[in-house]
Amino acid sequence: MRFVVTAGPTREYIDAVRFLSNPSTGRMGFAVARAARAAGHDVTLIAGPVSLKTPPGVTRIDVVSARDMLNAVRTVIARADVLVMTAAVADWRPACCATRKLKKSEMSDTLHLVRNPDILKSVRGPRVRVGFAAETGAPAAEAARKCREKGLDLVVGNDVTEPGSGFGTDTNRVTFVTPDGKVQRLPLMSKLAVARRIVSFVARRR
Ligand code: C5P
């Protein structure tokens, strides 16, 4: 199968040197790309700004902002069978961005923000769609809502406040939520082990 996997944060620039972002390191998405490739799939990895090595045999496209990521997904989605949206896409961006560094005297105390496009809601297909739900607290209810609203076959939820889960760790405790309302809580395991579970789930949808 042909996988498109997104990973990492996006950056939304205010001026040439300042941006809005989040603490995502890309580890979960890179693990999904690695696991999918190791299982014999064709993998395109669309990565926000992260400092991780590309897994062997994976085609990588680097992007910066949410809008760049949407454009990259649109470019490759027609050929894909599976989209795994692991990226922590920034929900807002500054309404305008200066191409040079603004002087403090030129900056106002309030930042005018506009909503970024929701990538999952903006693209149709491919056949199998997987999303993530990083929550502060038990993720199952929010994950179920995202599953419905974003038309997903699987939502992988996690509580980023739990020790060993979420941003920057090598492990994750996740909950799988499917459109039939089933909730499967997995134990704490490495992100690569979580990634293998996701790839097996997708392979069963064939
Ligand atoms: O709504 P929320 O951002 O929590 O949804 C998380 C899921 O939606 C993730 O799979 C994420 O990659 C995806 N997403 C997206 N476009 C956005 C924000 C999130 O595709 N602008």
Explain this structure.
This protein is an alpha/beta fold and 206 residues long. It has a single domain (2-205), classed as 3-Layer(aba) Sandwich (Rossmann fold), CATH 3.40.50.10300. Helix content is 25%, strand content 27%. It contains five helices and 14 strands. The protein has helices at 27-38, 66-76, 119-122, 140-149, 191-204; strands at residues 2-7, 12-13, 19-20, 42-47, 59-62, 82-85, 92-94, 113-115, 128-135, 154-159, 171-172, 174-177, 183-185, 189-190. The strands form four sheets. The protein has an eight-stranded mixed beta sheet with strand order 5-4-1-6-9-10-12-13, sandwiched between helices. The chain has a two-stranded antiparallel sheet with strand order 2-3. Strands 7-8 form a two-stranded antiparallel ribbon. Helix 1 crosses helix 5 (191-204). The chain is globular, with a radius of gyration of 17 Å. The mean pLDDT is 95.
Give a quick precis of the structure.
The chain is an alpha/beta fold.
